[in-house]
């Protein structure tokens, strides 16, 4: 054995074992550098592919006239608020109707109901001046 068993007949053959192992370390350093460069290229390629796929997907969705999730959530929130407001208004209207039903029935002249429609046979201008059906002698009997 000429080189003292220092790697000349190892698995890599004669050129990679030389001496104290310095050649083998340089080879692996170079291999690691090449692998690191390849990984960085692959990572950049992956990022580029991801951005291209995302752009194509967004273009496809735009052609289909689909809405984005944020827009859908905003529309659902508006609908929820409108539904709550409508329910609150329905409760309020029911309470007002109950109050109206509980009120004693008043004559149309007391509440002002029918004030916009003059009675037949009377003119609009003379209705408030006492001329017309039942206009002038309110309480004339003394009762």
TrEMBL record:
Keywords noted in UniProt: Coiled coil
Gly residues: bias regions: 127-143
Region (Disordered): 103-143
Annotated InterPro entries: UbiK
Pfam families in alphabetical order: BMFP (PF04380)
Coiled-coil intervals, chain numbering: 69-99
Protein name: BMFP domain-containing protein YqiC
Organism: Muricoccus pecuniae
């Amino acid at each position: 054995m000429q080189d003292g068993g220092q790697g000349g007949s190892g698995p890599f053959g004669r050129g990679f074992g030389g001496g104290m192992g310095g050649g083998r370390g340089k080879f692996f350093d170079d291999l690691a550098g090449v692998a690191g460069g390849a990984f960085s290229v692959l990572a950049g390629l992956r990022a580029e592919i991801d951005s291209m796929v995302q752009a194509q997907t967004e273009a496809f969705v735009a052609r289909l006239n689909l809405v984005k999730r944020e827009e859908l959530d905003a529309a659902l929130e508006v609908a929820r608020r409108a539904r709550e407001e409508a329910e609150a208004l329905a409760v309020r209207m029911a309470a007002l109707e109950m109050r109206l039903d509980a009120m004693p029935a008043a004559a149309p002249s007391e509440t002002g109901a029918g004030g916009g429609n003059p009675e037949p046979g009377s003119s609009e201008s003379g209705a408030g001046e006492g001329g017309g059906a039942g206009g002038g002698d309110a309480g004339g009997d003394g009762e």
